[in-house]
Design a protein that fits this description.
Number of helices: 2
Helix content: 10-25%
Largest sheet: 5 strands, antiparallel
Structural class: mainly beta
Radius of gyration: 17 Å
Strand content: 35-45%
Shape: globular
Amino acid sequence: MSGSLELVSLHGGGSDYEFYGTDDLANRFRVTGFPTGVIDSRASIPNFTSSSTTASVAMEVAQETQNAYPSKTGIALNSSLDGTSLTVDLSLYFKEADTYRVTVLLLEDGITGAQNGVSGTYVHNDVARKAITSMNGEEIVIAEDFQQWTKTYTLDINSKWKSENLEILVYVEKPYGDQTVVKGVKDASYGRYGDTYIDNCRTVKVGETAELELR
């Protein structure tokens, strides 16, 4: 499902890679232990003993979202880094009028270090480093169909983070409205984790440009 799934790894308290926004999302998704995966803000994926089982359930839920909730938004962005000053230009396109939420995070790949609870050295990817928006997302009210929305964000980053490994994650949430909350994958744990689901998401390396994609 290349191009359909984007990953973000949220480390909790006590981790060398602790991210302050982890607790906010753990409360929202009622996470009681690590690791836990959440797909599209709709379903929790437990840590099965078989990694292939975990992967297959995650993919089934993602496919279910694609089939039941066709994307109503498009994402385009570019970014530039000047020393420790990061600028992100974001453009969103909306097919339908609604009240959306957009969340923008800075991630880092290729972090070599310890893994809590086990010995050895691991490479950690998609690690959340900084929230560019609120972890609850920025509300965007779209009054008419087929509208575009743009915004520029600027922030300072930690000089210890490797610029060549940084990427921007953007995800857009849309209200269910009168749509049925689909719960068809047997081994997933569904819950009403709010009134929205992930409509679209995109990850782009810092310094690169992602042109608008519409499906």
